[in-house]
Amino acid sequence: MSEVVQKSKLAKQAAQTMGNLTTEQKNAALLLMADSLVTEQQAIIEANAKDLQRGKELGTSASLLDRLALNESRIAAIAEGLRQIAELPDPIGDTLEAFDRPNGLRIRKLRVPLGVIGIIYEARPNVTVDAAGLCLKTGNAVVLRGGSSALFSNEKIVEVLHGALSRSAIPADALQLILSADRSSVDEMLKLNGLIDVLIPRGGHSLIQNVVNNASVPVIETGAGVCHTFIDESAQLDMAVRIGINAKAQRPSVCNSMETLLVHESIAEKHLSAIAEAFQGAHVALKGNERARELVPNMQVAEIEDWKTEYGDYILNIKVVKDLDEALAHIREYGTMHSECIVTEDAANAERFLQEVDAAAVYHNASTRFTDGFEFGFGAEIGISTQKLHARGPMGLPALTSTKYRVYGSGQIRE
């Protein structure tokens, strides 16, 4: 029996217990997990150092190493995320609908756990903790398969969390980590119908598309983020630059960072040089369309593939557009339905942008960096869904539930 099958079976068995736990039991376990992460932080940092060293030897980019790195402050923040999850309302058991039929049947629709959630992700070890916390809070068991770049970190983190769970009502088997770094372990998870109830991929475009295209297990797609900010002709320039710099440079490695800045031609003719200088001052390399390069010649040429690229780095495309129509057309062509922003003082243009852009989150005069479970008040998120079924946008606790109808009768039979 393979590691994937063995651990998924253990998770499936544990899931039967999970659905019967009280909110108090689950919260107590989450707090134990948080305390253990802080208590064992040096061991986790030492394991993380092995991953960082291996990443440097393999030539991993600075932005990806940043996503991988753990220190005391980051571990404290991860632990705080678990504490926040413990404080959030437990959706399990919530009554969503209640109605009575003319024949006397009483029907109640309740939230219930999904069962076993498989999560396939890449280089961020904080996902290991976030995913465990959210899944366990909602009464689900979870099978994690992280990337090889964080293998030592993830193994130590799960070891620490298992130690905490052994002192709680949650069975330790409800949290499983696949240690195999072989691609076959991912392929195997994709076909485990009957053991894994739903898969959630978190990572780059190729990982997500592999899962979406090849899984027979149901998938919640968390898409890549080719996010845009459009500076309209009525935008306040200082605000637009501040929002743009934040959206690109505050943390470029994450999926809600901006990859393309669209600038109305009337703004560009007067101010694109100053806008470009601001980004270059934030260490952002620029690529532009023909009109943008006429105004700022030191930009590189933006090719067709660049408009489709999620850089995850200090690189930004700039495109000068004629008007809102051209900006909307560009987003329709190259956006990934993640997060899109318009900076404008024109209420009609703002409303049209918010209405017409098909994305999980659309913004007026605010950075796309806010597409985040913490920032939306959901606690740590499991991911940002760019699909339209079941869940969309930052996925907090309710997104990790299904529903069940309870039907109460008094001997009714159907004629």
Task: Explain what the structure shows.
The chain is α/β, with parallel strands linked by helices. The protein contains 15 helices and 16 strands. It has a 7-stranded parallel sheet. The radius of gyration is 23 Å and the shape is globular. The N and C termini lie far apart (49 Å). The model has no long low-confidence stretch (mean pLDDT 94).
Short summary:
Helices cover about 45% and strands about 20% of the residues. The protein is of the alpha/beta class. Strands 10-9-11-8-7-12-13 form a 7-stranded parallel sheet. Strands 5-4-3-6 form a 4-stranded parallel sheet, sandwiched between helices. A 3-stranded antiparallel sheet has the order 1-2-16, with no helix packed on it.
Write the layout of secondary structure elements.
Elements: H1 3-18, H2 23-39, H3 41-57, H4 62-68, H5 72-87, E1 95-100, E2 106-113, E3 116-121, H6 126-137, E4 141-145, H7 151-165, E5 175-177, H8 183-189, E6 198-202, H9 205-214, E7 227-231, H10 237-249, E8 258-264, H11 265-281, E9 285-288, H12 290-295, E10 300-301, H13 304-307, E11 315-321, H14 324-334, E12 339-343, H15 347-356, E13 361-364, E14 384-385, E15 393-394, E16 401-408
Parallel strand pairs: 3-4, 3-6, 4-5, 7-8, 7-12, 8-11, 9-10, 9-11, 12-13
Antiparallel strand pairs: 1-2, 2-16, 14-15
Helix pairs in contact: 2-5, 2-7, 3-7, 5-6, 10-11
